[in-house]
Amino acid sequence: MGDDAPNAGTQTHYLNKEEEFRVEVKIGTSVKVTLTDGTAEIFGAELPKGTPVTLPGGKHAVFSWHGATIDVLGATELEYVARDTPMTQYLNLDGVLEERRKAAAAAGAAGDDGFASDGPRVALVGPTDVGKSSIAKILTNYAVRKQWAPLFVDLDLGQGGITCPATIGAVPVDRPIDAEEGVPLEMPLVYFAGDTSPGNNPDLYRYLVERMAAMLDARHASNPAARAAGVVINTMGWVEGQGYKLLLHALDALKVDNVVVVGQERLHSELTRDFRGKRVGGDVPGEGTPVRVWKLNKSGGVVERSPEFRRRCRDQKIREYFYGAPGAELQPHSQTLPFGQVSIFKVGGGPRAPATALPIGQQSSSDPLRVTTVAPSMSLLNSVLAVSHGRSNADLLSSNVAGFIFVTEVDMRNGRFTFVSPSAGELPSRNLLAGSLKWIEMP
Ligand SMILES: Nc1ncnc2c1ncn2[C@@H]1O[C@H](COP(=O)(O)OP(=O)(O)OP(=O)(O)O)[C@@H](O)[C@H]1O
């Protein structure tokens, strides 16, 4: 253990075999890490030798399997070297998944299009702050380093692992997810739930997870390489009561065959009980891949994040969407449009009234899956709106989104609003989806 914090200037750190340098960087700032000797990785992504890598605000770990020397430039809030890590456990799990991928590819090559040609569908589950997203990145990156392109799926509405918070998303990963660029965003499939918690509209969350599962099945049916590479899924940290039911639904819908529980004995035993004897992928009972439930240790480096820190991480994620990662400072584009030139919708309006409480044939106006029009008002100020691929009112619910805009000004007197978007030019669609996601831009 070791170095004192906080630090500025360049500090050199020496990592022995299987040691990890843990560092906390203040939100809104960044530090640069350069590997000068040996080999090291950040959540499974190899550090290039001699090239500085920017670590944005947050908590990071630089791990070395064989020993390394690293230089860190900039002020950190906390830093130390840890000897005890669960990385060997994570590597062993990767070994099991790798065997599955190879067997799936071999079965596919032999013309078998049954469940034997399915690569692993792995989900990381556990309460908040146990390291689920970090392990999801490690497993994805280890697969990418062996030339697979697995699908990375994020079901956590709270943090926006792929694009903005309040979404679930999936993206094929063909180059390592690194600290600077995050998940590659060439072809993300993103659904907007409009809220950072699924508890406010669980029906919508379930619906979107099922949409995602259908798209995933369709992709695998037409792409044997993607099918063999498999899927790594990061789930939300709400694992009690309704959260547990939503989790079971998602694992079922996405046909997860490797459930990896991080850091909670009770959840592990509940899932072991609920998945006993269960198989996925087969056409007849008794066929298919048995679901395996694993238990992984939580890394000592994962620290609990306060609600305030989480909120700031979420804001940073939205900021990154519009301005790029710290240091990139992309220029978002500002435009003003009359309200008449766009249609703004929202999904759901609170809990559904029981059908028995309504006149026969009438649908509740608060149907959680009902799409309604949002009238222009000042309440749109600071809203993050999704730009939907949906063309008609009917398919807005089921369509994925092209991107997001952020409302910076509402001019009710002249009936127009000003927004920023990450790229210039026409919006890909004039159909916008609103939710409760807001962002106040800090200087
Ligand atoms: N080994 C480590 N050393 C230092 N920091 C770490 C380590 N592993 C994870 N972290 C950091 O700890 C924080 C929580 O980790 P992570 O986001 O993976 O947890 P999670 O279980 O997915 O949380 P949530 O469900 O709340 O999103 C993150 O800021 C992550 O970068």
TrEMBL record:
Belongs to the Clp1 family. Clp1 subfamily. Keywords: ATP-binding, mRNA processing, Nucleotide-binding, Nucleus. InterPro entries: Clp1 (IPR028606), Clp1/Grc3 (IPR045116), Clp1_C (IPR010655), Clp1_C_sf (IPR038238), Clp1_N (IPR032324), Clp1_N_sf (IPR038239), CLP1_P (IPR032319), P-loop_NTPase (IPR027417). GO terms for biological process: mRNA 3'-end processing; tRNA splicing, via endonucleolytic cleavage and ligation. Required for endonucleolytic cleavage during polyadenylation-dependent pre-mRNA 3'-end formation. It is found in: Nucleus. SUPFAM superfamilies: P-loop containing nucleoside triphosphate hydrolases (SSF52540). Residues 15-104 form the Clp1 N-terminal domain. This is Protein CLP1 homolog. ATP binds at E20, K59, D129, V130, G131, K132, S133, S134. Residues 126-324 form the Clp1 P-loop domain. The lineage of its organism: Eukaryota, Viridiplantae, Chlorophyta, Mamiellophyceae, Mamiellales. GO terms for cellular component: mRNA cleavage factor complex. Residues 330-441 form the Clp1 C-terminal domain. One of its GO terms (molecular function) is ATP binding.
